[in-house]
Specification:
Helices cover 17% and strands 25% of the residues. Helix 4 crosses helix 5. The strands form 4 sheets. A 6-stranded antiparallel sheet has the order 3-4-8-7-6-5, with no helix packed on it. It is built from 6 helices and 17 strands. By secondary structure, it is α+β, with helices and mostly antiparallel strands. It has 2 domains: 119 residues, Peptide methionine sulfoxide reductase (Metal Binding Protein, Guanine Nucleotide Exchange Factor, Chain A); 145 residues, Peptide Methionine Sulfoxide Reductase, Chain A (2-Layer Sandwich).
């Protein structure tokens, strides 16, 4: 078996050729049907040319006849989505270093997953199993929680040991690729949600959800703190019966402690990352959240 996550190294832009830099850094596009990895069908891992982080597995590669390598899935947490500068498409970049990969498209019905990552060959390297180390087989997982403004949720959750990244975005609505102002108007049905990528060998889903209940007010029904509106409601999006049972158990504990929990348990839907300006908001501003704070609700009765 080959590992699902390869150890990334530090980006070295100075080692790129002019053409590689044009695509990976300056977001240019290689000409269709010219990439060296377009027809590669061997078993292995496709990694970021710039930093070495594993991005795609060979079994998720398919022939889309578009002229660029295509994948209908990515390694968990390896690829970040963001609005493209053209205002229409969704750009994909390496989550580790930000190197440009290409674009992602949904709804084309080319595979059962209904997703196509259209990637420049020049943004990737290909590594067969025998070229890889077996000591880094890390199975990362994702959790999706909504508890008011995603700025504050992201700020607190990314401080947990074992959490690899937190992305602010939207989930639960009926409009594909919504932007922030569409969600704020309340017409898309989305909640401001954070995607938490974590290492289950270091932190459990239970502990993430428990902390979630302690950094926002799960009793508020019309928003969170001063932020009022349907996009700010409290919810947890679960991917399995096991996750739902964990959430239900924690809610029962809170209710035993006297809390009237308004948090909804919902099934996961497509997650859409918010615009770059909404990522790491408080870190960029150098300020603290105004509507989130830690309250140890499980340690004492209300």
């Amino acid at each position: 078996m080959y590992p699902t996550i390869l150890p990334p190294f530090q980006p070295k832009i100075q080692d790129l050729t002019d053409f590689e830099k044009a695509v990976i850094v300056d977001k240019a596009t290689e000409r269709p049907y010219t990439g060296s990895l377009l027809n590669v069908k061997d078993k292995g891992i496709f990694a970021c040319k710039l930093c070495g982080a594993a991005l795609y597995r060979s079994e998720d590669k398919f022939d889309s006849h578009c002229g660029w390598p295509s994948f209908d899935d990515e390694i968990a947490g390896a690829v970040k989505r963001m609005p493209d500068a053209d205002g229409r498409r969704v750009e994909i970049v390496c989550a580790n270093c930000g190197g440009h990969l290409g674009h992602v498209f949904e709804g084309e019905e080319m595979t059962p997953k209904n997703t196509r990552h259209c990637v420049n060959s020049v943004s990737l390297t290909f590594q067969k199993p025998e070229q890889q180390k077996d000591t880094t087989n890390v199975q990362l997982k994702k959790a999706y929680v909504a508890g008011g403004c995603f700025w504050g949720m992201e700020h607190y959750l990314q401080q947990l040991e074992g959490v690899k990244s937190v992305v602010s975005g939207f989930m639960g609505g009926h409009v594909a690729n919504p932007d922030y102002y569409e969600v704020v108007r309340g017409t898309t049905g989305h909640l401001e949600t954070v995607e938490v990528l974590y290492d289950p060998s270091k932190i459990s889903y239970h502990d993430i959800v428990k902390y979630f209940f302690e950094i926002h007010d799960p009793e508020q029904t019309n928003g969170q703190g001063p932020d009022i509106g349907s996009q700010y409601l409290s919810a947890i999006f679960v991917e399995s019966e096991e996750e739902a049972a964990v959430v239900a158990g924690l809610i029962a504990q809170l209710e035993d402690n006297g809390y009237k929990v308004a948090t909804q348990i919902l099934s996961t839907k497509p997650f859409y990352a918010a615009e770059e300006g909404h990522q790491d908001y408080y870190e960029k501003k150098g300020t603290q959240p105004y509507c989130h704070g830690f309250v140890p609700r499980f340690d004492r009765r209300k």
